[in-house]
Write a structure and sequence with these properties.
229 residues, alpha/beta, five-stranded parallel sheet, four-stranded antiparallel sheet, 41% helix, elongated
Length: 229
């Protein structure tokens, strides 16, 4: 299983370091930011699996950043745990209302933090991210990073794999090329929209008949993955 990436956002370096050590010992990959602006850029560029977000920071607060991430389509599902020295009930409620998935009050033990983090990640992990997902004999196994049809392994490029994984975990919805670029390539990567068409073509070719028909062209919009005709 690939290591999950956690972004720690806190303006106090010693706290970031203490958390980073605990997470690395628990086999997480760690990113760090000391303010909301650089944290937002890191979320877009690196697409972490979870954000540990300090409530009180100079400039934009953790609550404001949480609201912004939950508002934006590309990050609305991103799990957030608020870190705060405030234990009062109304602050806790405000933090959760901003879209945070959990709340942990400083000081906390590293073991408690890791346990809470695992629980939030477990709730947030959709099928096809850790569990295999299958549609009409087409199987994608994220742990081994393999794609197969009726047990026969497929040769597939890394971008086509990510595209297929996104489609298979987001079925029956039409996505524009721009949305696919954001979700599969990452929001800050400069790639022309026609690049999506090239990779869709390669993916269809790799899937072959009849499975390539699962990836449907939606006129005037983009593409949809659907087992319905």
């Amino acid at each position: 299983m690939t290591a999950k990436t956690v972004l720690i956002v806190d303006d106090e370096a010693p706290i970031r370091e203490m958390i980073a050590v605990a997470l690395e010992m628990a086999d997480y990959r760690v990113l760090e930011a000391d303010n909301a602006q650089s944290a937002h850029a890191m979320v877009v560029d690196h697409q972490p699996d979870l954000v540990l977000l300090d409530w009180m920071m100079p400039g934009t607060s953790g609550v404001e950043l949480s609201r912004r991430l939950k508002r934006e389509e590309g990050t609305s599902e991103l799990p957030i745990i608020m870190l705060t020295a405030k234990g009062e009930e109304d602050n806790k409620i405000q933090g959760l209302e901003s879209g945070a998935d959990d709340y942990i009050t400083k000081p906390f033990s590293p073991r408690e933090l890791v346990a809470r983090l695992k629980a939030v990640l477990r709730r947030a992990t959709p099928r096809g991210v850790e569990e295999p997902v299958q549609v009409e004999g087409l199987m994608l196994d994220p742990v081994s990073h393999r794609v197969s049809i009726d047990g026969q392994s497929l040769e597939i490029g890394p971008t086509e794999y990510r595209l297929l994984q996104f489609f298979m975990t987001h079925q029956e919805r039409a996505y524009t090329r721009g949305q696919l670029l954001d979700q599969v390539w990452g929001g800050n990567v400069y790639v022309e929209e026609r690049t999506v068409d090239v990779h869709i073509r390669r993916l269809r070719k790799a899937l072959g008949e009849p499975h390539q028909q699962l990836i449907q062209t939606v006129r005037g919009t983009g593409y949809r993955f659907s087992a319905k005709g």
